[in-house]
Design brief:
The protein is an all-alpha fold. It has one domain (2-295). It is built from 13 helices and two strands, in the order ααααααααααααββα. A two-stranded antiparallel ribbon has the order 1-2. Helix 3 packs antiparallel against helix 4 and helix 8 packs parallel to helix 13 (269-298).
Length: 304
């Protein structure tokens, strides 16, 4: 845990203060490769999708393992630097923070067209309409989900499997975005990509949702979480949105039109700023938990 905390802290600091990897996008080549694989493999069957996922991910996973093993054999410090570099390139907090701030500033300036365009950079989709409420609400939802997908889930899997875990989580997210039941074309072909993303995201999504509750209004977050559990269409986005929106008092789960839904309050630019701050507080919260566990490990309270 001590090594994890030190590595994660350094990677987060690099992510927050360095922007060089914004120009060098380490996974763009993978997206191109995935598109190439899909053109060759997609015949509309589940078995073809399973084979495509293996072809897309196994060489990279094996490569990460080999590089890590060789570097550690040469010098453990080189392996440590490799861990930091991999986590740095897999994290996306700075990008998330900067893009959400850009949307907020456009909303504050009253430029809805610009705000919606900046939202597309953040969420890869625009709002349903170019009104402040629609853009702000879509931005908040994107923040709550990406706070998990691009930050907490990456740190979680790095803690479990080291650099392999961080890379695996990132690759699976890309595959799900590309193939995961997007339309009829991927209904069967994208089955494994979607299922892997559900499985890999299950635990970190709930840790993040708990973090939203603790760092916001705990009672409201848990109430909305419990009340909406039966209507979740996405098993991982559901807890994140119900807990996050409840934590920020952005939905009232006592006044829904039926027994399960919750009424969304009017959203504005201020909610975007609050959602960004909530994601930051959750990141700090879980890093403090890791710090306490590292301290306990050093003091011999828990095993190494």
């Amino acid at each position: 845990m001590t090594e994890f905390f030190i590595t994660a802290a350094i990677a987060l600091l690099l992510d927050f203060y360095l922007k060089s990897h914004w120009q060098f996008k380490p996974f763009d080549w993978f997206r191109v490769w995935v598109d190439s694989i899909e053109q060759r493999f997609n015949g509309g069957t589940r078995s073809q999708g399973i084979g495509a996922v293996l072809v897309a991910t196994l060489p990279i996973i094996i490569g990460v393992l080999i590089i890590r093993f060789v570097l550690y054999a040469i010098m453990p410090f080189l392996a440590f630097l490799f861990d930091v570099a991999v986590l740095y390139f897999c994290l996306g907090f700075n990008r998330l923070y900067t893009r959400s701030t850009a949307v907020y500033e456009s909303l504050e300036a009253g430029n809805m067209i610009e705000a919606n365009e900046r939202l597309r950079h953040l969420a890869r989709r625009g709002a349903a309409s170019e009104t402040e409420s629609s853009i702000a609400h879509t931005t908040v939802e994107a923040l709550l989900k990406q706070g998990n997908n691009n930050v907490i889930a990456t740190l979680f899997w790095f803690g479990v499997l080291g650099p392999l875990g961080a890379v695996m989580q990132r690759l699976v997210r890309i595959l799900d975005n590309k193939w995961g039941h997007q339309d009829a074309r991927f209904a069967e072909y994208g089955w494994l990509a979607a299922r892997l993303d559900d499985v890999i995201g299950w635990v970190p999504a709930r840790l993040t949702a708990v973090g939203y509750a603790i760092m916001g209004s705990f009672e409201d977050a848990m109430h909305c979480w419990r009340k909406q559990v039966s209507i979740w269409k996405d098993i991982n986005s559901g807890p994140l949105l119900s807990s996050g929106l409840g934590a920020m008092h952005m939905q009232d789960c006592d006044t829904g039109n039926d027994g399960e839904s919750c009424e969304i309050v009017e959203t504005n630019a201020g909610h975007v700023r609050r959602a960004t701050a909530l994601v930051l507080r959750v990141l700090i919260f879980w890093m403090m938990i890791a710090l306490l566990m590292a301290f306990a490990e050093v003091m011999g309270v828990i095993g190494s």
